[in-house]
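queue> pop job 88
queue> type: inverse folding (structure -> sequence)
queue> payload:
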């Protein structure tokens, strides 16, 4: 076993190998081991990111057995190739993450697969955060009821970037990942093959100020058939509590089911976001899986509720 720590960015060939490893793990486990954020940061210029590579042979060989990502804020993910599991690669990667990130490390376990709790406990980690993966199958979509003075239109790239980033930051001010998006983060996603402005809805006031948004996403190449995602719903603090979050959610679901003809819609919701979780449950979403984030036990503290989509 050989471990290598590489600063951002990874060479393109190495990034491609990591992507292949993640795909193999997803095929085996039924859940993606690395988030979209991590995959987009593999070979881009993102100062502060660190990449950990575990090889069964020499560094740079084709025998990449495992990979871990560590962000400047301490957020981390790791994956081990199914054929190299139970051989110490996961433990070795996690130890290096803890050595580099210290008490700030927060490691995601997507799908909370068998063995993740055991590994975390062995290295002194406990659950710091929960992220629910919810799914809704085809069912009638109630009509959206918009608050007075609000209309809906679609996002215009280049024109709406700054306004959207400002509302996103305000809506998710206490969210560890979403609220910190920059223009570069937005640009990364606007350039992805899946991006469709027709599925990116903005709720605007009479003067065209952005009050909230619902960005949808369609997954074409995952699973047996395409499915839609409530990618992110956010409401400006000035408009929370008006029912705007529900109206935006319904508009996006209607688009995915009726305009795009998709029978299944999924979303992620933070375990502390009780208002949004209740809304989604009332709209027919049920829990399909659970992601958890582990942290050193002495750093685990209760999280404050995030009600940005209310």
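queue> result:
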């Amino acid at each position: 076993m050989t471990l290598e720590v590489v600063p951002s960015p990874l060479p393109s060939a190495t990034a491609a190998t990591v992507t292949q490893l993640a795909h193999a793990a997803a095929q085996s486990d039924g859940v993606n081991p690395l988030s979209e954020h991590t995959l987009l940061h593999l070979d881009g210029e993102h100062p502060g990111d660190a990449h950990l590579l575990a090889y069964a042979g020499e560094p740079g060989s084709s025998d990449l057995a495992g990979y871990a990502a560590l962000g400047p804020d301490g957020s981390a993910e790791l994956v081990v190739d199914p054929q190299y599991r139970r051989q110490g690669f996961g433990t070795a990667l996690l130890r290096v993450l803890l050595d580099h990130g210290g008490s700030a490390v927060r490691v995601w376990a997507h799908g909370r697969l068998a063995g993740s709790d055991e590994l975390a406990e062995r290295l002194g980690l406990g659950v710091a955060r929960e992220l629910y993966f919810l799914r809704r199958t085809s069912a009638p979509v109630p009509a959206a009821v918009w608050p007075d003075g609000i209309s809906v239109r679609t996002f215009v790239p280049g024109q709406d970037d700054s306004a959207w980033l400002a509302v996103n930051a305000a809506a998710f001010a206490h969210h560890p990942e979403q609220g910190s998006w920059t223009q570069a983060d937005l640009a990364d996603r606007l350039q992805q093959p899946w991006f469709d402005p027709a599925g990116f809805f903005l709720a605007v006031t009479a003067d065209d100020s952005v009050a909230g948004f619902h960005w949808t996403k369609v997954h074409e190449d995952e699973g047996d058939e395409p499915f839609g995602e409530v990618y992110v719903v956010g409401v400006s603090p000035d408009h929370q509590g008006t029912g705007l979050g529900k109206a935006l959610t319904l508009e996006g679901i209607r688009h995915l089911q009726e305009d795009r003809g998709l029978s299944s819609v999924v979303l992620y919701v933070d375990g502390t976001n009780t208002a949004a979780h209740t809304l989604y449950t009332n709209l027919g979403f049920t829990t399909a899986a659970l992601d958890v984030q582990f942290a050193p036990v002495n750093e685990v503290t209760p999280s404050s509720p995030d009600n940005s989509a209310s």
